[in-house]
Write a structure and sequence with these properties.
By secondary structure, the chain is mainly α. Helices cover 59% and strands 11% of the residues.
């Protein structure tokens, strides 16, 4: 492991901390997250299945965008 890898780990930790803080502060405004059209939800009396495919695709695109921006800045 070199010094550059350590920097990436620190930057990743800062990003996770900021995202966690935003979710903590604005959790009441994020009620739509996980309830988007395309998210699969099956609820029966003794069984619940939830697969948030649309939410995961959007989060993946957002994380990819953030990573690309950070890589261009550094």
């Amino acid at each position: 492991m070199d010094q550059q890898t350590g920097k990436y780990i620190i930057y990743f930790g800062i990003i996770v901390l900021v995202i966690g803080g935003l979710v903590y502060l604005f959790h009441d405004k994020l009620t739509w997250l996980g309830k988007l059209p395309g998210d699969i939800r099956v609820e029966k009396e003794n069984f619940k299945f939830y697969f948030p495919i649309t939410t995961m695709i959007l989060l993946s695109l957002l994380v990819t965008l953030i990573i690309n921006l950070v890589r261009r800045i550094l």
